[in-house]
Amino acid sequence: EETGTKGKEVKEKGETKGGKGTKGTKGKKNRKGGKEEEGEEGMKGEEDQRPKSKEEVLIELNEWRERRGNEGVAKEFEGEQMTELSCESCGAKTCSLQPFGGLPVEPGGGEYVESKGGRSKKVKSKGGKSKESKGGARVSLPDLASFHFSEETVEDFRCECCGNLGSVLKQQKILRFPRVLLVTIKRFRAFPEPHKLDSAVEFDPQGLDLSDFRLSPKDKNLRKIVDPCGGKYKLVALVEHFGSLDDGHYICRANDPLKGWTLFDDHKVSGFGEKQLESSQKSVYILFYEIEED
Hints:
This protein is mainly beta and 294 residues long. The strands form 6 sheets. Strands 7, 13, 17, 18, 19, 20, 21 and 22 form an 8-stranded mixed beta sheet that branches. Strands 6-5-12-11-9-8 form a 6-stranded antiparallel beta sheet. A two-stranded antiparallel sheet has the order 1-2. The protein is globular and about 60 Å long. Helices cover 11% and strands 39% of the residues. The longest helix has 9 residues, at 141-149.
């Protein structure tokens, strides 16, 4: 092993890179099934690359926050989430932390392909039927949020504990909610051929509640480091897209505390009533929410 400021390469029947851990620490080897695994950026520093339990990850949460920082734009637009993977072969559960920078939801739902580390994996939701909307069918934003956070089965995934290539169950939970939440309606698709989804997405102008998707540790000491905010948001603005994949037009609707809802369409600016937001369900593309303080 070699000591360095960014983790030196360790050589033994090949080469592997140490993860980006604390400066000045040693790049440790992590052998599983005769192979050296590459360190992950984030909670896994060079000094400890073994899989971590939910409790271990939460205990190290404050250190992770200090390393990343939380100033400027990140303070307003970025939260935190935990991903737990449960191996169906050995039963091991491993957890990791990621920034929670927004909520992308698919009006189509169902099966899609996710790419990570250069490997493509099929991901199927276990949270219900496909949400593909045809013939004017509607889906609600709360249902799409629930679909996003539902337990998924990830195929062709190599377990960090047993080294087997198989299926794992994936579950995501929110640790800290961003003050400003961006919800993106993923209307543009490339497969089986490029097209745009014009599904109507119902949303409540009064707000969005994500409290059901917050992590609730059983240990009362761990509960203290999870966001105490309830996860309730109020809608403050939205962007609509009209047109196709090749060309189109964007408009913005924003709620001014003094003037009420206002439409911004290029140089045209005009007020309108909240009820008119129902006409935006087929064209809404991005919704902007602001956290409601408890």
